[in-house]
From TrEMBL:
This is Transcriptional regulator SbtR-like C-terminal domain-containing protein. Signal peptide: none annotated. InterPro entries: Tet_transcr_reg_TetR-rel_C_sf, TetR_SbtR-like_C. Gene3D superfamilies: Tetracycline Repressor, domain 2. SUPFAM superfamilies: Tetracyclin repressor-like, C-terminal domain. Pfam families: TetR_C_43. Residues 19-78 form the Transcriptional regulator SbtR-like C-terminal domain. It comes from Nonomuraea maheshkhaliensis.
Length: 98
């Protein structure tokens, strides 16, 4: 199964990764470790945000990504939950409405 809008070679790893992220996130939700409204797509996008956000300083501060990932993980805990302003994305495929 290819991600909609992506070729088969590129799409399959994306779909597989998203499925894995969703499965892990579902387990974390069931265990009460993350807020009830967090999805696998949220996790994928948040990790990507950390990666992209710290890339410009990765040579001078190679471990900085850990700081931001820790902040994000703390914010995902149920005790930190507040209503979110918009729902989680339904698709991560380029060119599709989130």
């Amino acid at each position: 199964m290819a991600a909609q809008g992506l070729g088969t070679d590129v799409g399959r790893p994306v779909v597989d990764g998203l499925r894995r992220a969703e499965a892990l996130t579902a387990r974390a939700r069931q265990a009460g470790e993350v807020r009830d409204d967090v999805t696998g797509a949220d996790i994928v996008l948040l990790i990507n945000a950390v990666t992209q956000g710290t890339a410009p300083v990765s040579d001078t501060a190679p471990g900085l990504w850990r700081r931001y990932l820790s902040m994000i993980f703390d914010g995902l805990r149920p005790e930190a939950a507040r209503p979110l302003p918009v729902p989680a994305p339904q698709s991560l495929a380029p060119g599709r409405a989130l």
